[in-house]
Amino acid sequence: YSYESIESIIKFILSRTSQRPEIGIICGTGMGGLADILYEKESFPYKEIPDFPVSTVPGHLGFLVFGKLNGTQVICMQGRFHVYEGYSVWKCVMPIRVMKLIGVRVLIITNAAGSVNQNFSVGDIMLIKDHINFSGLGSNNPLRGKNDDRWGPRFSPMSDAYDLRLRQLVRTIAKKLDLDKYLKEGVYCMIGGPSYETVSEIQLLKLLGADAVGMSTAHEVIAARHCAIRVIGISLITNSCVMKHDSEEMPANHEEVMEVGNLHKKDLEKLVTEIIMNIDTV
Ligand SMILES: O=P(O)(O)O[C@H]1O[C@H](CO)[C@@H](O)[C@H]1O
Question: Which residues line ligand 1 (CB under 6 A)?
Answer without folding.
Answer: 28-29, 57, 80, 82, 111-112, 193, 214-216, 254, 257
